């Protein structure tokens, strides 16, 4: 018997992957016994935010991930297609009918026992057989406390405080230059976007006047590294005053509001840098840090923010060298429970500190409905193979699955943050090309070939 906790996208896919391979499952879902501030129904796999499951195009990263999930027997994608609504290129679903169908599939499967009750730390300690935690970004305070104890509190986050991330190939390297402050460390540890005085003040003006994303009531609560996990939420009217940002993660727009020069003396201080175009120190400089060992992605250092996504693109493309930047991920500061995967999880998404305890979904450090479901399938597949005496078969690096796992296992020194499937984490082709269309076609071709090989090894 495998115990799966949480009946969101990851939990139901884990349960389905196991049951479809002949393994008995006990699936816990605390709703309606205990509510969360984000859910409105008792259905499994409830779509809390958007009803879109990303692109249907087979030549997109999301499309490739879906192809791999379907090849492994995804339940949620099959039911999403059955209950889809018009959404252009995106796979959009009727929320209620989709939720009803997923719930019915779980409740009617003879090898899945659904338990509508809260799963507690005491139950986790006494659990026999594999345990899968798929409790998502609103994991209960009690279970969060238990997970923090198992992994070390510093490896469990309760807020995303993430800077935007851009593709390296979209940077204007005639402007951007590589240099660490005072030439300390490797010369290419950081890239720098140099401002002159006029560019800097124009950026600051646009930043402080940009439209902000709203807070949600459930975004107050525990903060990374603090003992206080507390309740899910404070009253809506108290949220803006009471929400706590942990050290170093104040939104960049809030810093800029303190004074026009605050960024130039803080996040963007140019001390120790020399612009090779002028052979002088720039007025200010935004630094970029590698997000992966291949250095195909760079994050904008200390640029976490709460601007709306469209505003982020407009404002940050005013930064010298970023005028054509392609954003893989926008900055956020919001409630989200997830592990520092490279430290806490092994390649099979099992806790390094507690063998036989697996993690699926957003807790692993992926982002999005589809990515969460994908991790659920993978965990279920791996456990089923293990119980059947079969060995672990890793997805090839060039597949979408392999790319997501590479992100979760990448030991590059960085502030680990959740990631969705995107072009930047799929490996570049062996033969370099500057043509984006050709590069992306080669990535998809390699992913499809890798999927075929993986399925053969799994057979």
Major β-sheet profile: 6 strands, antiparallel
* Annotated CATH topology of the largest domain: FAD/NAD(P)-binding domain
State the fourth-level CATH superfamily of the largest domain. Answer: FAD/NAD(P)-binding domain
How many domains? The number is 2
Strand content: 5-15%
Rg of Cα set? 22 Å
**Based on DSSP secondary structure assignment, what is the total number of beta strands?**
16
Distance between the first and last residues' Cα? 23 Å
SSE sequence, one letter per element: EHEEHHEEHEHEHEEEEHHHEEHEEHEHHH
- Poorly predicted runs: 220-247
Average pLDDT score:
88
Identify the CATH architecture of the largest domain: 3-Layer(bba) Sandwich
The CATH C-level class name of the largest domain:
Alpha Beta
How would you write the strand order of the largest sheet?
A: 10-11-12-13-9-14
Which term fits the overall shape? globular
Helix content: 25-40%
Task: Give the helix/strand layout.
Blueprint: E1 2-5, H1 9-20, E2 25-28, E3 52-55, H2 61-71, H3 75-82, E4 84-85, E5 90-93, H4 95-108, E6 112-115, H5 121-126, E7 131-133, H6 141-151, E8 156-162, E9 165-167, E10 177-178, E11 191-195, H7 197-209, H8 236-242, H9 252-256, E12 284-290, E13 297-300, H10 309-316, E14 327-329, E15 332-339, H11 341-344, E16 357-359, H12 369-387, H13 400-409, H14 436-458
Parallel strand pairs: 1-2, 1-7, 2-6, 7-16
Antiparallel strand pairs: 3-5, 4-5, 8-15, 9-13, 9-14, 10-11, 11-12, 12-13
Helix pairs in contact: 1-12, 2-12, 2-14
């Amino acid at each position: 018997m495998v115990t799966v906790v949480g009946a969101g996208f990851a939990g139901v896919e884990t349960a389905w992957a196991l049951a479809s391979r002949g393994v008995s499952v006990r699936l816990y879902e605390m709703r309606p016994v205990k509510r969360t501030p984000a859910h409105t129904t008792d259905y499994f796999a409830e779509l809390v935010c958007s009803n879109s499951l990303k692109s249907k195009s087979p030549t997109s990263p999301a499309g490739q991930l879906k192809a791999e999930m379907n090849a492994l027997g995804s339940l949620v994608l099959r039911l999403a297609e059955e209950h889809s609504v018009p959404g252009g290129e995106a796979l959009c679903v009727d929320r209620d009918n989709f939720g009803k169908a997923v719930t019915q599939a779980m409740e009617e499967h003879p090898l899945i026992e659904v338990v509508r009750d809260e799963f507690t730390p005491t139950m986790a300690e006494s659990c026999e057989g594999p345990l899968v935690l798929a409790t998502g970004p609103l994991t209960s305070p009690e279970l969060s406390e238990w997970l923090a104890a198992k992994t070390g509190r510093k490896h469990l986050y309760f807020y995303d405080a993430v800077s935007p991330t851009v593709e390296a190939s979209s940077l204007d390297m005639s402007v951007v230059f590589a240099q660490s402050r005072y030439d300390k460390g490797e010369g290419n540890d950081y890239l720098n976007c140099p401002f002159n005085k006029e560019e800097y003040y124009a950026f600051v003006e646009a930043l402080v006047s940009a439209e902000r994303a709203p807070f949600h009531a459930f975004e107050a609560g525990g903060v990374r590294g603090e003992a206080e996990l507390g309740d899910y939420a404070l009253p809506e009217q108290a949220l803006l005053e009471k929400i706590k940002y942990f050290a170093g993660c104040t939104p960049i727009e809030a810093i800029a509001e303190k004074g026009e020069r605050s960024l130039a003396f803080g996040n963007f201080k140019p001390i120790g840098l020399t612009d090779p175009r002028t052979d002088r120190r720039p007025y200010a400089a935004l630094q970029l840090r590698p997000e992966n060992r291949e250095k195909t992605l760079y994050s904008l250092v200390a640029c976490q923010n709460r601007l709306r996504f469209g505003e982020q693109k407009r404002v940050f493309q005013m930064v010298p060298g970023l005028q054509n930047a392609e954003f893989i991920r926008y900055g956020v500061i919001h409630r989200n429970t997830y592990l520092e995967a490279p430290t806490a999880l092994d390649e099979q998404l099992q806790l390094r500190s507690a063998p036989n305890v697996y993690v699926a979904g957003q807790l692993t450090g992926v982002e999005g409905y589809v990515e969460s479901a994908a991790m659920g399938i993978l965990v279920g597949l791996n456990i089923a193979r293990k119980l059947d005496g079969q060995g672990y078969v890793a997805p090839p690096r060039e597949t979408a699955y392999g790319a997501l796992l590479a992100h979760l296992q990448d030991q590059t020194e960085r502030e680990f943050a959740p990631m969705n499937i995107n072009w930047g984490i799929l490996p570049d082709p062996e033969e370099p090309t500057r043509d984006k269309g050709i590069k992306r076609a080669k990535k998809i071709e390699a992913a499809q070939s890798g999927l075929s090989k993986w399925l053969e090894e799994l057979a």
